Amino acid sequence: MAIKERMPAPGEPGQLVEMSWDPITRIIGNLGIYTKIDFANRKVVECHSTSSLFRGYSVFMKGKDPRDAGFITSRICGICGDNHTTCSVYAQNMAYGIKTPPLAEWIVNLGEAAEYMFDHTIFQDNMVFVDFCEAMVKDTNPGLLKRARTTEAPGAAVHGYRTIAEIMEAFNPFEGEVYKEALKVSRVTREMFCLMEGRHVHPSTVYPGGVGTMPQPSLFTDYLSRLIGIVDFIKKAVAMNDDVFDFFYEALPGYEEVGRRRIMLGCWGAFQNPDVVDYRYETMNRWGKAMYVTPGIVVDGKLLTTDLVDINLGIRILLGSSFYDDWVNEKPFVTHDPLGNPVDMRHPWNQTTLPAPQKRDFDGNYSWVMSPRWLDPASGQHLALDTGGGPFARLYVTALANLVDTPYVKATGSSVRISLPKGDRLPETTLEWRIPRWSNALERNRARVYFVAYAAAMAVHFVEQAMDRMRGGDTKVFEDFDVPDEAIGVGFHEAVRGVLSHHMVIQKGKIANYHPYPPTPWNGSPRDSFGTPGPYEDAVQDMPIFEENGPDDFKGVDIMRAVRSFDPCLPCGVHMYLGKGRKLEKLHSPMFGAAHG
Which positions does UniProt annotate for Mg(2+) binding (predicted)? Predict the structure, then answer.
């Protein structure tokens, strides 16, 4: 719920009002955003991001059979569990010395493409766009809605809605045409996923060494027929999103500052190239660059690296404002990587999780999320990278790297061109995502719908490659292996909402250390030991407020747009903290939907 506490002498010019949203709704419920707002100057002056639940997967993974890692870690998340399974399998393949059969790689790629299409669609259309729909805008910015009713939609010929307001109405929850159609698309894309990985969201057919999915012509034609059935929806979605977001820029000058932060993006790559990948650490730079989503780090619009070895070695886990004790005096698990490079004590391979429960204190420790950072060797700075919600970083890095070149997706150095096949009603269409000027809420959201198109286009390519291999008589999908007594492994992948890495150490045939780092610790981290705020905090702090409501009926829609643009996803749990002696006033219910009329 949203809560308010007026500080002394309310109503004075520039007087700060504390407001918090805990839990943030429409996501897994243990993210809290605590702010101080200057209503006189329409500005957020302070923001803290909190997570109120400790789960401890890194603790109870110790001593387990390494082969169970994928099945256990998929339960980290009830939304993108398959991404964890896939990443764990990548790490295990490295530790066991496996080169997966090519057809198995195509099958996993097809499953992950379906997952991106499913998750991004349901989040964008059924959760994010509630903040941009007619019912919400009517409550928060009635003047903007009035203008939207008379503003022609440039993409009307594609999506069929004459004005911007008509698009907004189509996203009204439970009633709007697009809102309901997106739910149908989510069902179809889950079916596509299950064809390849067996079960959603915890795969039953993805293992180290390959897959248990039986390759047959009907497997791929069933997938493809479903894909062709939704490509027109994807084309329309891109046009609708472009129309709405461009309208916000035009109608609300300065809206580019909502959720804006310095461009500091991380992408760990996705979709392995079976012709190149062998999962050896020594060749990781080569096969990383061959991924169909390029890994890399971008700072201030410049691509710093696409080398997964550099990315791996630069990861640092800082504690700062989190509820943990330090482990730097413990004995390291890994002193050097397989190439002989030294491994830092704050690297996930060497991390020991030492929980230290305590009272939340915004001047001290206030979150169960640690603070992952990337140490830039050139500047010596620990960078608070964000994922841009996943798609923004993926498209940005892939565009700059200019390495992806397939018949359906091509990077150009400044953009990504995406070609979608003919659907039931719309012709073959080429879309182009261009690197924008800002890293902000609107561009993170815009990138999401473009990446749905990216995943769909790559899925066509993956189907063609899989069918060609099967027609050639190569139906092998699994490689036998043995678990070594001593080994290390790392998997790099893109969870739906961004960077995902699994770091594993095997000793005496069992897991000695295991640390998964999904995107939310990167995006939702608290202030680190250098005082640097995490990306949620950074994006909200100092941003302007455009909502027309005052403190008494404030919805915080601009703040919610900024936070939700990162596609926040924290482990299940709901928590509210009421500080001693504070008087809190309920502002509104978190539910916004069927009763909005």
Answer: 575
569 annotated to a ligand binding site: yes
Could you report how far apart the first and last alpha carbons of the chain are, in Å? 20
Q: What is the pLDDT of residues 338-397, one digit of tens each?
A: 999 999 999 999 999 999 999 999 999 999 999 999 999 999 999 999 999 999 999 999
Q: Is 77 annotated for ligand binding?
A: yes
47 known ligand binder: no
Task: Report whether 87 belongs to an annotated binding site.
Answer: no
Q: Mean pLDDT throughout 238-265? A: 98
By CB neighbour count within 10 A (0-12 exposed, 13-18 middle, 19+ buried), where does 3 fall?
middle
Q: Which residues contact 417 (CB under 8 A, 6 or more apart)?
A: 409, 410, 430, 431, 432
Pick left, alpha or beta for residue 396 (phi over 0 → left; psi -120 to 50 → alpha; otherwise beta): alpha
Q: What is the pLDDT of residues 96-116, one digit of tens each?
A: 999 999 999 999 999 999 999
Is 0.90 topped by the overall pTM? yes
- Any known ligand binding at 572? yes
Residue tagged 């991106």 (tokens): 116
Q: What are the DSSP calls for 429-478, one per residue?
A: EEEEEE--S--SHHHHHHHHHHHHHHHHHHHHHHHHHHHHHHHTT----B
The tokens of 37 are what? 């707002």
In terms of residues, how long is the chain? Answer: 597
Q: Where are the beta strands (DSSP E) in 217-263?
A: none
Instruction: Specify the pLDDT at position 5.
Output: 52
Closest CA to 524 of 488, 483, 569, 465: 569
